[in-house]
Amino acid sequence: MIITSCGNSLDIAKGLAKKLKAVYSPLTISSFPDGDIYLKFNTEVKGHTVVIVQSFQPFSNISLLDVIFAAETAKDLGAKKVILVAPYLAYMRQDKRFNPGECISSRVMAKLLNNSVDKLITIDTHIHRYKSLKDIFTIPAKNLTSNALIAHYVQKHIKDEIILGPDWESYQWAEHIAHDIHVGVTVLEKIRFSSRKVKVKLVKPIPIKGKNVVIVDDIISTGHTIAEAAMQAKRMGAKSITAIGVHGLFVEGAIDKLRKAGVHKIVTTNCIEHPTNGIDVTPLLYEELRKEK
Ligand code: R5P
């Protein structure tokens, strides 16, 4: 088995290679003077399973294209199987045509991967209107969850806590984590006016006053969703507020926004490399890849 990466998720790639006792050989990726992608494998891949470890952030568009070029090259060089490990899979939120004429990006992204890789492994990908990844992927596609790792983190670092999901979609994380560590949980109702404007309200109240509130969501992008939830928790007398995101994209000044909204601590998994990473998903991916050896 050969573990490689197109530049993102290098720490996870190295960690996996070490645990799996596999060859770690990152790709050489640069561009030609006109901007075209230049890509080169630096080890013999013929007859081997090649694992491309690559989150689709930063730079989702180029990351996707790099993966396609890498997978096609691996097959062209005689790889037995190409597995994509994408701890963060981009484009999943555009899962319907919200306005006439729009591209359903998740379908297009899936089509490209179906054509170029043999298997996909991802983590807590944004499945909302789809029932499962089978709705868009024809290749085997596994969606792992970091719930147990997050629950372990909360149990170890936070006391007298309650878990808060900022919207109904986040309940799948909030509920599982709270259940694992036997603490209270509630969820807010989110109304999204645009990609940059949301409002939340508490529909199922639980005591928040004096509690250390842990807000859990799959994605923190502009930070609006968590910021609204944090302000709501503050109004209800929370003692402290921790925000945990599986995928920390942090665009458009999200960190500042969260701080201003009263979030004391921000923690993410290393699905996307970021200084807030506090939860390592490598063991989760290792368990899944072990089956391929
Ligand atoms: C959306 O449904 C997701 O679960 C997140 O709540 C959302 O993507 C967060 O985005 P933002 O940080 O821009 O509010």
Along the chain, the helix and strand elements come as: EHEEEEHEHEEHEHEEEHEHEEH
Shape: globular
Helix/strand structural class: alpha/beta
Head-to-tail CA distance between termini: 7 Å
- Provide the gyration radius in Å: 20 Å
Could you describe the largest sheet, including whether it forms a barrel? Answer: 7 strands, mixed
Which second-level CATH architecture of the largest domain applies?
Answer: 3-Layer(aba) Sandwich
Number of domains: 2
Q: Provide the helix percentage.
A: 25-40%
Determine the CATH topology of the largest domain: Rossmann fold
| Chemical compounds bound to the protein | ribose-5-phosphate
Number of strands: 15
Beta-strand fraction estimate? 25-35%
Q: If you average the pLDDT, what whole number results? A: 95
Low-confidence stretches: none
Q: Number of helical segments? A: 8
Structure write-up:
The relative contact order is 0.13. The chain folds into 2 domains: 2-146 and 281-292, 3-Layer(aba) Sandwich (Rossmann fold); 147-270, Rossmann fold (3-Layer(aba) Sandwich). Helix 1 packs across helix 8 and helix 6 packs parallel to helix 7 (254-260). The chain is globular, with a radius of gyration of 20 Å. The longest helix has 17 residues, at 60-76. Helices cover 31% and strands 27% of the residues. The strands form 3 sheets. It has a 7-stranded mixed sheet with strand order 11-10-9-12-13-14-15. Strands 2-1-5-6-7-8 form a 6-stranded parallel sheet, with helices on both faces. Strands 3-4 form a two-stranded antiparallel ribbon. It is α/β, with parallel strands linked by helices and 293 residues long. The structure holds ribose-5-phosphate. Residues 166-167, 169-170, 198, 217-225 line the site of ribose-5-phosphate.
